[in-house]
Every structure is written in C-alpha cells, then in structure tokens.
Design brief:
By secondary structure, the chain is mainly beta. Helix content is about 5%, strand content about 30%.
C-alpha cells in the first residue's frame, strides 16, 4: 500500500522603418513550417508574402509598420509573468512562450528569473471537436490550432489585461458589485471576466471578476475571426465556433515561485451542440542558455516524470477531515476523522538538459495538467483528471513515425487516441528515450461529449522549473514503485526529487481549501432540504428556465429509497462518485452545511507597489505622470503608491504589510537575448519598515527633542552624504517608513487619495493584523512615497524595483524584484539656458565587441535595438526643437524632433483605467526639465553611420546653434 506522510512545507497556508533583422538560423526556435505560416498570416507585422526576405533561405525577416496592441500581442515587448522565479511570455494567440527569438528579446520560459537560461520553446494550444450538423464531410472533425485563434476583434479593447489578487473589483468569491440574479435572487459572484467588456449585461464593465496571484494576464480568443480564417496555413481553416478565455498567473510566495499556471475556459458559441470536444497542447520545452547556438539540441526526455498518486495526511483543522460527522457506511469511529488523508494525482512530463551546460542549466522543465472539467459518472467527460493521449518525439519526426501532426485530420486522430496512457491508472506509460536531442511532445485531454451551445469546458495547466539531475531522474520509476509499496518514505522521495516536490506543491495549491460560506452565500452550497447536505456531495445541478420534471439520485439517496427533484430555482447537490471525501461538509446540530471550495488559496507577500519607472506609467503622454517624471539631472526620483499596504492577504484577509525594499540594477549591458536584469544584477538600496504602532514615538505635536536614540550601523548624514555607524535620534509618526541601517525616513506625501466617480476616496476592507478587528485602508496613487537616488550618471541605463514584505506565519516574506528592458530609465541633463548644446561622448569610439567597452553606455545589439549604442545631445533648450545632423560634405544624415519617440520598439500602447489609449513611448523631450536628446547612430535611410566628422544644427525658440562631433568606428 502507499505510504502516507505529513510534511509541513507542503501546506500552502516608432523605430526606423524597414530595419532588417537577421534571424540567425542558429537561434531560430520555431520550426520552419510554423514560422512560415505565421509570417504569411500576419501581413500587419511582416507585409505580404512577396516582401523580399520575408522568410527566405537566408533567414531574414522584415518587420512591418507599427501595429495596435489589440493585434496578437506576441512579438514584444509583451506580457511577461515575472512575479515568481519562472519568467514566461503570455500571448493572445493560443501560444505560451516566445519562439520568435529573431523578433523579440522577451523571455520564453526562463529560470531563475531573467537569467537568460531558457526552459521553454513554446506551448501551442489546440481544440478539436465533431460538428454533428456539418454537411461537408471535411467540416465534421476539425481542430482549431495555434494561429487560428485570434483576439475577437482588432479593436484596442481586445488586448491582454493585467491584474493581481487584491485589486479593486477582483476579489475572489466576493460579490464586489452587490448584484443578484434576477431570477433566483442569489448573489452573483465573479460573474465578469477581465476583458474590457460588459459580460453580464448590467451596463458595467469588469466590475466583479476573480484575480489570482501577484500577477495575472487575461485575454479572450476566438477561432472564427476573419483573421483566423485567412491565416495562411497549408490547409483551409474551418472554425468550430469557439470562444476561449485565458487566465495566466504567477505567485511571489517562495514555495509557489517555481511554476506559472494557465487556465482556459472554452465555450461553445457555434449555435449548436458540439460533440467529442478535445483539448490538446503541443509542448516544446528547450533547456539551455539563449546565448548558446542550438542550446535545445542536447536535451533529454523524461516523459513519465512527474506522474503518480501521492497520499498526504490532512492536518488538524482542515475541513476535509469532516469532523464531527454523521454515521456513514462503512462506519467510522466517532473520535476519528472521516477523511484523514487525501490523494493527489500528478500528471506531467519533463525535459532537461543532458549535461547541465557546465552548471548553467540546472533545472528540469515540466508541463503539468492540474485540472479539467470532470463528470463523476464518466458519461460526458472523464471521471478523473488525466491525459487522454501523449506522444514524445524528436523534432522533425514525421507523424507516421510518432512525430508532429501537421493537418487537422492528423491532429484529431492523435487527440482522440489513447496513445501512451494506461487505461486503468490514467498515467503515462511511455518509456523515456536514452538519446539526447530536441524533444517535443503532444498531449490531449477529454473527450467532453455533448457540449451544448453556451456550455463551457475548463482546463488548467502549469509550466514548472525546479532543480534536477539527469542521472538521478533515471531512478524515478523504481523509486515511485518503492513508494507505492511502502518501502520508501514520501518525505525522502520529495527530498530526492525537488522538481517532484514543486509539482506536488502546484497541485496542492490548485486543489485549494474548503471554507465556510460567507453570510448571504449559503444558497451556493448544500444547505437546504432539497440541497440535502451530506458528506461527498460536490456536484451541483440546476434545471434550465422552464425545464420541468427533472430528478436525480446519488448512492445515498438510493440507500434511503428516494429521488430528489431538480428545479431552476436552487442548486441540488449530489455525490455521484459515492466518495465521501471528494466534497467537504460541516455537520452541526443547528445548521449542517456544505463548504466553499477555494482554489489557489495561498499565503503570499503583498503585491509590489505601482512605480513611476514602470513602462506602463513612465511614458510622456501619461496624464497621471506629470510631476512624477523619474529622470533628473544626475538623479532618479522614485515614486510609488500604497498598494502593498492597502491590499489584504488573500488567504487571511489581514493587512499584514511591514516593509519596502528598494532595489537598483546598474551597469547592465543587455547580455545576448536578455530581457532585463538577472537576479545577480540587483543591489539593495535600502529597506524601509513602516511605523504604525502608535501615533508617534515622541511627546508633543512638534517637539522632536524626546525622540529615542538609535544606533544605526550605516547612518546616512543628511548634510555630508557620508555613511558611518552613529547613535542618532529617530523621530517617527504613524505611517512613516524608516531604514534601520541608515536612519533615512520616508514620510508619506500630501498627495490626494484615489477617488471613485462620485469623488469618494477608495478604501479596501480587511482585518487589522494586531487587533484582529475589521478596518479599512485608504488607497493613494503613485507619489505617496518618494526616494531619490543620486548615485547615477546622465545618459546611462538603470533599473529599479520595489518589493514588499509582510508578517506571515513563516516569518517575513517578500515579493520578487524584477524589471523588463522597457522599464529602463536614464538620468537627463536639465534644459539649457543658452546656446550651449554639446554631444556626449565626443568623440564616440565604437567597439568590436561589447566586452571592450569600459562602461555600460553601449548595450549588446538586439532585435529591438539593432545598434545597441547612442550619442546624447546635452543642454537642449526648452520648448519644441529640431536637430539636423550632416556629414562634413553637407549631406543630411538624419533629423530629430523634440516629440520623436525614443523607445517605441520597446513599448506598446497603454490603456489607462479611464479607457483612454496612449502612446506608451518616451519622447525626446520627456518632461519640462529634460534637456537631453538621444540618437542611435542610424541614418534616415536605415543604415549604420561610418567614421567621420559630423555637424549638427539645433533650431529652437533660442534661434539656431551649431556644433560638431566625431565618430570613430
């Protein structure tokens, strides 16, 4: 029999037009067929197929014009999950990851953090089904795959949305807007989806949705858009009429930081029933540093890992133990738990680098199936969570030899098969290959029979990375067998395989916990006479409006000789699997009731605050940024909001914020295919703790003479700026932030609160951590706190991040520090007061390799920045200006304007909460005090300039001024 263990750690309380980008075939990740189809079907990005070099043998791709953010957000910079240690790109094209290394420096699936070490090529989603009303035989069994999924429209509203747990209107299992079902009077909970549309028809948009994790991206896709029908694939696309809602989220909790999750809700919008619906994923996990050509070619396949059934003892107080309980058959002693343990099923497969790349690639990548819609009776859907079919193969293998399916017929044949899945256990039975190579896989889930128009199917998967050893993983099948017969302790098994521990952690987090229903929500759990509360009743049924005469019985009903009616006015609950332990129930003499199942119930540090250097805030056209521009003369001013302290913990609903940590990354030179600073690039500028125990720590309103003296290890003298150990008075008022090392104090500014449409300050409800009494926190915008960093040099690139810490049951925990290239800032000289513009550096000396540059002025060239370098014009005048640059012979090289964008290739459009869409780029004249302009040494013809003497002319309200500079290459 299986061994049972209890392990506390398991309990989860416009750039220059037509710049040609070299694809460099050694770094091209997507297979030629997918790449060719993608180029042909996206003229908005690449122009027509006849564009010279669009996808030719030289591996060149020509970028097209700038496009709205509503178009498939895939080329970057895009939506990247960075809250945890696994950084994954999310798109709205049924694709996870970034296989287009030629076009975007965004990570695909890097770990740990922005390390430049990839573990994911891509995951492409497909959905197949049988159309029973089709008259054309070619339209009966079709599959909507990858490029055939598109945003519903090309309107700006249909883009990817960003959120986090604790955001206004995003509370889970809460009626945020107070509305009720007009037919039953029941409270509506999380009836909206974060997509910019009025999903419930009440005239409001995104007023009550469910947000998960410290970072969440949501979007909607359909398989029947005009763009999907004309996708340029090898065969015509026949849509099934499906809508897919995608939620992608990650956590900053250290125990949950090594995986990201994806939830898909697939809804039939065809107008008729679909049969035998199947969901499939093509998974290409590639392990290795992106800087190494062909890094994916030496991977090893570990397909059966992690798979298995694992028994975990339930801790005291877990509702799933179900104490006290009614008599059941077989009988259970009154002094014992009805369900003392729970079995978790792990369904996954893995790939890892065979030799570890000399210690650089130490992780194992896993694709995990966490859950999907089930039917306890096994009639219309599988009765348990498992794969339907699986195949692992070396890239390039033909379909007939177990390789990639290339047509709808082949895809449907695979999706509906039972290849490499044990029909009894539901686990994978494939044997891993002993050969290394570029491994890919296909898996399927289902079938889901008789999917009515308007009905939905849900699937949740995860991509995980954790430490692993190639040779040790070869022992897993035998170790699993030993565990199953009780000769290997479960704790020892997890200790030997950290990636297994990580997968089990993800599964436990997904399974969630049971909670008592909040007041007013009792009708949504088994509680009434017809609801018939009892152990194991987890399946709710309700008749459609006007549907009469329905009834059903579970095994307990049959034992009692009864059948219960099913009406349209309330839910009726049944235990169709006859398992007491699959539905939690709380018995008491007054009001026996069922319980809420809350998935992803995790203890997490507060979300990081909104910061003025973030790309979605730090753009010239942002009306909220005015006066909060970070860049100054030899200084960067950070400003942030109080989001961290005004967000209650999602598990305990306590306001448990304690500390901000301010981080900085300097000397970053954009290593090859890097998307932002790696973990090792960050330095801690300061840790600031909140003082909120009393109104002040001194006597009197203004007197600071009675403040306590504190020994600061690195006291920062406010006059000299020097640091040394010193005993100094510490004078604090409630809400101040103070640094225990330096004595620095950040006091809240007098900025006004965030107000709603009625002019009221927005507040968040929660529980006071100390008193455990209900309280509120007022929300303040960016600018509530400010910190000035003066240890910077004008024109150089810097990154900043602020993480928040809390008081948790396991001690103080902090969120993750992270930033993308689009978040970079540079200090700027102030405006000139006379004709004194000068060029830096002058002369400009080019280098053959980035390693020869003594400073971080130059960056490694990338897809979005072909030169990687620049010269800056300092002392620029106020107001509008134009810079014209000439060769010594008088030929015009380029013309720059004060309103030109300087980082359009890195920035997408931004939609503010007011619904207004803005250009997300910074302009040359970024603020009223910005006296600096930048040029990337690319001529107006899209060519890199050569060595020589160049003349410049500045025209402004001050008149005309001239100068020269030298370029040596």
């Amino acid at each position: 029999m299986k061994r049972t263990w209890s392990r506390p750690a398991l309990w989860i309380a416009p750039a220059l037009v037509a710049v040609t980008l070299l694809a460099r075939p050694a770094h091209a990740r997507m297979d030629p067929q997918m790449l060719d189809e993608f180029v042909r079907s996206h003229p908005e990005y690449f122009g027509s197929r006849s564009t010279p070099g669009a996808a030719n043998g030289a591996g060149q791709i020509v970028r097209g014009p700038a496009t709205p953010a509503a178009l498939p957000d895939i080329l970057g910079p895009g939506a990247v999950l960075t809250a945890g240690d696994v950084n994954v790109k999310v798109t709205n094209l049924a694709l996870i990851g970034n296989p287009f290394l030629q076009l975007s420096s965004d990570p695909s699936g890097q770990w740990p953090g922005a390390s430049g070490v990839e573990y994911l090529g891509f995951v492409a989603l497909s959905v197949g089904a049988v159309n029973p009303v089709a008259t054309d035989p070619n339209a009966v069994r079709r599959v909507s795959y990858f490029n055939e999924w598109r945003p519903p429209t090309l309107q700006e509203v249909d883009h990817i949305y960003r959120s986090y747990e604790g955001i206004v209107n995003g509370a889970r299992l809460v009626n945020d807007d107070g509305d009720r079902d007009p037919l039953t009077g029941e409270q509506r909970i999380d009836e909206e989806f974060l997509d910019g549309h009025d999903d419930d028809g009440d005239g409001r948009i995104d007023e009550d949705y469910a947000a998960i994790g410290q970072q969440m991206f949501t979007c909607v896709m359909r398989d029947d858009t005009p763009e999907g029908l004309n996708n340029g694939a090898n065969e015509s696309h026949v849509p099934l009429g499906l809508e897919m809602r995608q939620r992608a989220f990650s956590f900053s909790n250290p125990r949950l930081a090594n995986f990201v999750a994806f939830e898909y809700r697939i809804t039939n919008r065809s107008g008729h029933e679909l049969d035998s619906l199947l969901v499939g994923f093509r998974v290409d996990m590639d392990c290795g540093p992106r800087s190494v050509p062909g890094y994916w070619a030496d991977d090893s396949d570990h397909s059966p890992f992690p798979n298995g059934d694992f028994v975990v003892a339930l801790r005291s107080g877990d509702f799933r133990r179900q104490l006290p309980h009614l008599p059941v058959n077989p009988p259970v002693p009154e002094d014992s738990a009805l369900c003392p343990r729970v079995t978790y099923r792990l369904n996954g497969f893995s790939v890892m680098d065979e030799d570890g790349d000399a210690g650089r690639t130490l992780g194992i990548a896993s694709f995990l199936l966490l859950g999907h819609t089930i039917d306890p009776l096994g009639v219309n859907a599988p009765s348990r969570v498992q794969f339907r079919a699986f195949r692992s193969y070396s890239a390039g293998a033909p379909f007939e030899n177990g390789g990639n399916p290339n047509t709808d017929q082949q895809r449907f044949d695979f999706l509906s098969s039972t290849q490499d899945v044990d029909p009894e256990t539901g686990h994978l039975v494939t044997e891993p290959s002993e050969l290394s190579g570029d491994w890919q896989a296909w898996c399927s889930i289902g079938p889901f029979l008789h999917v009515a128009n308007g009905a939905s199917v849900e699937v949740t998967v995860a991509f995980a990375v954790q430490r692993g050893e190639h040779l040790r993983l070869n022992d897993y099948p035998s170790d699993l067998a030993r565990y199953q017969v009780g000769s290997l302790d479960g704790g020892d098994l997890l200790e030997k395989y950290p990636a297994l521990d990580n997968a089990l952690t993800a599964q436990i987090a997904y399974e969630g916990v049971y909670e008592r229903p909040r007041e007013g929500f009792e009708s949504l759990v088994p509680s009434g006479a017809n609801n018939a509360p009892f152990h194991g009743r987890e399946t709710p049924l309700r008749a459609r409006p006007g549907q009469l005469g329905l009834s059903a019985a579970d095994c307990h009903d049959l034992a009692d000789g009864q059948v219960r009616p099913i009406t349209e006015f309330e839910l009726s609950w049944f235990d169709f699997d006859c398992d007491y332990c699959t539905g939690a129930y709380e018995h008491n003499d007054v009001h026996p009731t069922g319980l809420f199942l809350k998935r992803w119930n995790v203890e997490s540090p507060p979300p990081s605050p909104s910061l003025n250097v973030a790309a979605n805030f730090n753009y010239t056209d942002n009306p909220d940024r005015q006066g909060l521009e970070p860049s100054g003369d030899h200084q960067i001013t950070l400003a942030w909001d109080n989001l961290s302290e005004a967000t209650p913990d999602p598990e305990r609903h306590e306001f448990d914020f304690r500390t901000f940590r301010v981080w900085k990354a300097a000397d970053w030179q954009r290593p090859v295919v890097s998307s932002g600073p790696a973990d090792s690039d960050w330095a801690l500028l300061g840790e600031f703790r909140m003082f909120d125990y009393v109104d002040s720590n001194f006597v009197g309103e203004t007197s600071l003479t009675n403040c306590p003296n504190v020994l600061f290890p690195a006291y920062l003298d406010p006059v000299t700026g020097t640091r040394a150990p010193r005993l100094a008075p510490l004078c604090l008022r409630r809400g101040d932030l103070w640094n225990p090392q330096s004595g620095e104090i950040l006091r809240p500014t007098g900025i006004d609160c965030v107000r709603d449409t009625f002019g009221r300050c927005l507040e968040e409800d929660g529980v006071d951590l100390v008193t455990q009494l209900a309280t509120v926190r007022t929300k303040y915008p960016v600018g509530r706190y400010r910190y000035v960093d003066r240890e910077v040099k004008n024109g150089f690139v810097y990154f900043y991040s602020i993480s928040a810490g809390d008081s948790s049951s396991s001690g103080e925990t902090f969120g993750r520090r992270s930033a993308q290239e689009a978040d970079a800032v540079s200090p700027q000289t102030t405006i000139g007061t006379g004709k004194q513009v000068w060029v830096v550096p002058n002369p400009y000396r080019g280098v053959r390799t980035i390693g020869e540059r003594a400073s971080a002025w130059d960056l490694t060239p990338s897809a979005t920045d072909p030169t990687g370098t620049h010269i800056d014009f300092f002392g620029m005048p106020a107001g509008r200006w134009t810079i014209r640059i000439f060769t010594i012979s008088g030929d015009l090289v380029v013309e720059l304007h004060s309103d030109d964008a300087v980082n359009a290739s890195l920035r997408n459009q931004v939609q503010n909460p007011n619904g207004q869409v803005y250009d997300g780029a910074n302009r040359q004249q970024d603020g009223p005090n910005d006296g600096q302009a930048r040029w990337n040494l690319i001529s107006r013809n899209g060519q890199d300039i050569v060595s020589g003497i160049y003349l410049f002319v500045v025209d402004s309200s001050l008149g005309t001024q001239r100068g020269r500079f030298v370029v040596i290459r």
